[in-house]
């Protein structure tokens, strides 16, 4: 077997997300209190930091891919849908345009 062989694995993790996705919360609320927004962002950033220390890039972060584990952000927010994610090895440059077009920067569309 070659040293540079690529192994792809699929892991399906199924858990209950009683609060739906962040998009539902945003659609239902007129506005969110600053403390809730801060809590959500802290959880998302901790999750991204965890992924990045393992050289994983999610590549499709959007409200529909953030699920609420309960009715409030304190119950937990999870990043889901790793279908576009990639392991980024040192020296690798991402040149493919990936993600959901409505959530991409104007220069990437």
From TrEMBL:
Xref: Pfam families: Pkinase (PF00069)
Record key words, sorted: ATP-binding, Kinase, Nucleotide-binding, Serine/threonine-protein kinase, Transferase
Gene3D superfamilies associated with the record: Transferase(Phosphotransferase) domain 1 (1.10.510.10)
GO cellular component: nucleus
Enzyme Commission code: 2.7.11.1
Domain of life of the source: Eukaryota
Name of protein: Stk17bp
Lineage: Eukaryota, Metazoa, Ecdysozoa, Arthropoda, Crustacea
Gene name per UniProt: STK17B_3
